[in-house]
């Protein structure tokens, strides 16, 4: 995930204010559908002895599962899918940016709708993220201004819905992945803007999959319609007089409680030997979070190998403990992480420093501590840590691969924020016959292509070598132990 710029800046400014003025911001922070008659999927109750095989599945033809390998390939595929749509387009993203790439998607959507007036087009983005500017331009109207502009040009064709997962962006955003175009699920962690779609000179590397599956597409659309579009908390962003967040607060609280309980609804299927199984999963909050529980189960049940990708190394305590147990049990663990220079918040030492630019260094310090704790496993070959870096591009890849059987497509960053605050989802793929093994290996090789191995702590920068403004800020954060709070909400 690309963390919300406003929320992160606010957090670090709270800390900076606390350190400078002896205020107490830390205390303040503390202070299914009838149309297709699908049956309701009951949420499994995991225990340590539960079986991943018992999760209900949707059968998937491996020939209708396609892995894309680059941001540019993804952009072209997304535009092609939109242009060829016949019945429905559901775009679900954290944000659809007002920039060259975002406007190319907008033009594609409106052209498709004009060619085919019966085409259903629904756009969902995060409510808070859509209504504010980027770093340095916080007073701007945000992407909602673009949605209103298009509504004035093409009245009544498309509605842009804002989904408020929480009363404040700081405490939770819409982080669902998976757009649906006809019967194809276009699944990626990427939002829609220039860098995610490699529109200009740089790209943000992610994972990209096209899954042609009517049952899966219907389940995801049904969830969007029943629990998001139909919610009293979800409002149009393209109207000239949008409602205020303040007026929505009671509805937002009800929406969040509802989203914490619900899962995708579909008829489970028995998979033939020529098929793989897909289980769509949802998660929000600490309790009854099926996605979190499934991620833990994947690591608990691993017998010989685990591969984990995350752009921001800040694992929840429960996940760190399970990884440590897996290593003790002799399971090989491969960790692929973005280098601090591959973070979307990194700035070069000679550039103007802002508080937000300290984040990549915080993540690197987390990784250094992890390397120190697990050095014996690195030396024995059980643990390998790969740092991704490629020119001025950034890294946004996340997911798991376990025992050559299971893999997880997800936007979950495997950090406390994803674990507790944001609305997340994922697609668990069960492939006991290895029908997708070639695609998986090609994708992994592509991810590893621009990585280097970490052999010891000396392969990472230390606090002593950080730019002076970063060093000063991190020392002050550590002095008041604010880092523990930051790790929970970043």
From TrEMBL:
Keywords: Lipid biosynthesis, Lipid metabolism, Phospholipid biosynthesis, Phospholipid metabolism, Repeat, Transferase. Residues 391-418 form the PLD phosphodiesterase domain. Its EC number is 2.7.8.8. One of its GO terms (cellular component) is cytosol. One of its GO terms (biological process) is cardiolipin biosynthetic process. GO terms for molecular function: CDP-diacylglycerol-glycerol-3-phosphate 3-phosphatidyltransferase activity; CDP-diacylglycerol-serine O-phosphatidyltransferase activity. NCBIfam families: PRK09428.1. Belongs to the CDP-alcohol phosphatidyltransferase class-II family. This is CDP-diacylglycerol--serine O-phosphatidyltransferase. It comes from Agarivorans albus MKT 106.
